[in-house]
Design brief:
- The protein has 19 helices and 27 strands.
- With about 625 residues, it is α/β, with parallel strands linked by helices.
- Helix 18 links the parallel strand 25 and strand 26.
- The protein is globular, with a radius of gyration of 25 Å.
- Bound molecules: 2-deoxy-2-amino glucitol-6-phosphate.
- 2-deoxy-2-amino glucitol-6-phosphate (AGP) binds next to helix 9.
């Protein structure tokens, strides 16, 4: 959470910082601020509560000019979101300015110490202690900013990605990280820090990762990385394939709509080179899993634990059904924030599959560490090259969804599901639980998913009145109930999450069979039921559950299989998805709910790409 950016080079820093913050705003939007070292050698700080536009408006007539600066967009943790608590924070002298993402857990004791020594604090944030702690090191004789930063790092508990600059050492920024993302951009005669690569794509595609426990000193011409104890680290830049255009809205009114429409291409990329023809068969091809198998690490695996949060967790529920059905292995999906405190039973017999699109979710990363310490083998799924997850796991499977800017996840959901699909078939092949014919027949269907999504989006997509009409009558509702069975239940949970996070309508996702055990009391003519009623072995059961609620006068929106005309008898509104194996339906069935959430939010005038109180990357626990 929080977005941070730093620039040092020859250009005017302010527009670069503001543009970078605009691209990072999805990480937090409680306040925004910049600090620029101006040509007179003074650090000029501007910060405003609220969205970035408040800051942009405030500086529109007098932008600070200078060739280095730092910027921050905040998701508040300590201290309410106001001007004073906005970053950057400065020390008592005003010589230093600093931005931070994360939580310093021992900030109260450090603050007390520093106040006792005479440091004056202006904000309620944990971040401000960092500026004063560096100031103290310098006052006590640290030879330069780098030494001062290095000295304070071992005293901090918690998570941080920070960037600091001093007017006494112009031309230099220092960044450090521990359990919060920070990457370095290597430009031509300029260098950058940023929370993620999308902020820098416009300037460079050459990026370096910074690992936990490392800091970096960047100047216009040089990038040096060190461990906390001062040892220099050699790191080769990564060339990022994403281009700047892919992180733009491309004429769509919102990133969310653009990203929903990009799902066929994203799904295709997730499958690309993971399905291989072999003679007259198709085989799942995941080299990383083959390497694990050859190393013997999969030999003793008798169970799978899946770790994830939010939408990624719902993808794991879909993964479970495929893994259990096809690879015949017991699977336990865990919400990562529960797993890590549950004293879980995990050991060398456990394969962990961790999913996090950002690769930075604090609870998922901590759970992965715990599982690794207990001897588990860990496969990570993420969309972010070089993210924290990739450094913790045995192998990483990239989602290849392309940049996902909107806070509500869509294409990373379907690419997680696609990747899990091939992974489940790969494990079925290795465990010999499905024959070549069955695998080929499933993979032939998997290959059709991107085209089926394309068709589905054409039918229910942008220009479709039915979905917009349905959104119009959903918009005034205060509450909605989503139901499904089997994988349809996971789609219901994800549909409910999308609706609540984008349109702020209360929504719950329930197993259809559970309605009559309590939640059916909530249903009436003002609380609609959204049902996943696609063809499956439990289709008729779902229809019975729908009838139960219609008897209570609730209106029904159904996602059904193409050709199912009877469903109209049971629902006011129907969205069809193409026929496919029932375990492969979820990636398709989720799409009408995504669009419905989107258009309902449009009707309600919500802030679609940046829903209130949320952030794209949840780096706090
Ligand atoms: C998705 O729409 C949500 N914004 C959120 O639930 C998200 O899926 C969750 O925070 C997990 O993120 P991750 O995949 O980056 O770990």
């Amino acid at each position: 959470m929080c977005g941070i950016i730093g620039y040092v080079g020859e250009q005017n820093a302010t527009p670069i910082l503001i543009d970078g913050l605009a691209r990072l705003e999805y990480r937090g939007y409680d306040s925004a601020g910049i600090a620029v070292l101006d040509s007179q050698g003074a650090i000029v700080v501007h910060k405003r509560a609220g969205k970035l536009r408040n800051l942009s408006n405030a500086i529109s007539s007098s932008q600070p000019h200078g060739v280095q600066g730092i910027g921050h967009t905040r998701w508040a943790t300590h201290g309410e979101p106001n001007d004073i608590n906005a970053h950057p924070h400065v020390d008592c002298t005003g010589d230093l300015a600093l931005i931070h993402n994360g939580i310093i857990e021992n900030y109260q004791e450090l603050r007390k110490e520093l106040m006792a020594e005479g440091h004056v604090f202006t904000s309620q944030t944990d971040t401000e202690i960092l500026a004063h702690a560096i100031e103290r090191e310098l006052a006590q004789g640290a030879e330069n900013l780098e030494t001062a930063v290095r000295n304070i790092l071992p005293k901090l508990r918690g998570a941080y990605a920070m960037v600091v600059m001093s007017r006494k050492e112009p031309g230099k920024l220092i960044g450090a990280r521990n359990n919060a993302p920070l990457i370095i951009g290597a430009g031509n005669g300029e260098s950058y820090f940023a929370s993620d690569m999308t902020a820098l794509l416009k300037h460079t595609r050459s990026m370096l990762t910074l690992n936990d426990g490392e800091y970096a000193v960047i100047t216009a011409a040089d990038i040096r990385i060190h461990t906390i104890d001062g040892k220099q680290v050699q790191r080769t830049p990564i060339h990022v394939e994403w281009d700047a255009q892919s992180a733009e809205k491309d004429g769509y009114p919102h990133y969310l709509l653009k990203e929903i429409m990009e799902q066929p291409a994203a799904a295709q990329r997730a499958l690309l080179s993971r399905i291989k023809p072999l003679d007259d068969r198709l085989v799942p091809q995941i080299d990383e899993i083959d390497a694990l198998a050859q190393s013997g690490k999969l030999k003793n695996i008798s169970r799978i634990i899946m770790l994830a949060c939010g939408t990624s967790y719902y993808a794991s529920l879909i993964g479970r059904a495929m893994l259990e059905r096809w690879a015949r292995i017991p699977v336990e999906p865990w919400v990562a924030s529960e797993f890590r405190y549950a004293d879980p039973v995990v050991g060398p017999d456990t394969l962990v599959i961790a999913i996090t699109q950002s690769g930075e979710t604090a609870d998922t990363i901590a759970s992965v560490r715990l599982a690794k310490e207990s001897g588990a083998v860990v496969v990570g799924l993420t969309n972010m090259v070089g993210s924290a997850l990739t450094r913790e796991v045995d192998v990483t499977l990239y989602l290849n969804a392309g940049p996902e800017i909107s806070v509500p996840a869509t294409k990373t959901f379907v690419t997680s599901v696609m990747t899990l699909t091939v992974l489940a078939l790969k494990l079925a092949e290795l465990r010999d639980t499905l024959d070549a014919f069955a695998i080929t027949s499933l993979l032939r269907q998997v290959e059709t998913i991107p085209a089926k999504m394309e068709k589905l989006l054409e039918i229910v997509g942008v220009e479709n009145n039915t979905i917009q009409q349905t959104a119009k009558w959903l918009a005034p509702c205060q509450s909605a109930m989503f139901i499904g069975r089997g994988s349809g239940y996971a789609v219901a949970r994800e549909g409910a999450l999308k609706l609540k996070e984008v349109s702020y309508i209360h929504a719950e996702g329930y197993q259809a069979g559970e309605l009559k055990h309590g939640p059916i009391t909530l249903l009436d003519e003002f609380t609609p039921l959204l049902a996943v009623a696609t063809h499956s072995i439990v289709y008729e059961k779902v229809i019975s559950n729908i009838q139960e609620v219609r008897a209570r006068r609730a209106k029904v929106i159904a996602v059904a299989t193409e050709g199912d005309e009877l469903i109209h008898k049971h629902a006011e509104s129907v969205f069809y998805v193409p026929e496919i194996d029932e375990l492969l339906v979820p990636a398709l069935a989720a799409i009408p709910f995504q669009l419905l959430a989107y258009y309902t939010a449009v009707e309600r005038g919500c802030d679609i790409d940046q829903p209130r109180n949320l952030a794209k990357s949840v780096t706090v626990e």
